Amino acid sequence: MTILKNLGYWLGLPVLLIVVWYLATLGDVSTFVPRPLPLWEKFVSVWLGDNMLSDVLPSLGRLLVALGISTVLGVVLGVLIGSFRAARWFSEPLLEFLRAIPSTIMIPVLLLVIGLNDAMRTTVIVLGCLWPVLLNTITGVRSLDEVLSNTAKVYGIRGWNRVWHLVLPGASPAIMAGVRQSLAVGLILMVVSEMFASANGIGTLITNFQNRVAVPEMWSGVLLLGVVGVLLSAIFALVQKGVLKWYDGLKAAADGN
Known about the structure:
It is a single chain. This protein has 11 helices and no strands. The protein is globular and about 75 Å long. It has helices at 2-24, 36-47, 50-83, 85-99, 107-113, 118-142, 146-154, 159-196, 202-211, 215-243, 245-256. It is 83% helix and 0% strand. The protein is mostly helical.
């Protein structure tokens, strides 16, 4: 029963929107407005064939690598900056300066410095995904329970043991919130970096469809990005549930009291 209820939550609104979309396109509509069934057929023919290997998988590979790099960098730097007041004072002006620079603006610069390759496109995604993880990690570290921090000091828990057993678990809800934000940012930057300069990828193929005025194919790319976003969100929800199992249990216990 719970499974059916969860499926209802996940599929209820999308199914309703598809029905409305189908009814709204029964009559004469613009050639730029696709119908659901022909769009689905185009989606299958375009993306579930050779383009899956040549464009979709390389894009997803770059995205996952960039998310991994940005998460590791964001957590490491966030723990260091959040743990030491001098580090926060020293780095805050630089962080505010760098955060204000859009990642897409760096594409021409990175093309000159790194070149037209996967490393450049991955770097663009990393530059955008780093900030949600970094800033949330700093916030999470700074908001650690003072009682727990003082207890760790009393028992002589310092260095790596303090980071592993106190800082990272205590900041993990904020860290996971930052990673969730970076998923959406990374998906956007993946497409944008490929639209600017790339030999393959989802963004490149969508741009080619646009230049050829291949409207159904272009819309099928938009549909693909939506499906990828939903799948990434679902996978992250499972990972987050495992990582924050202790936190959810603590909240449930507090609500029960």
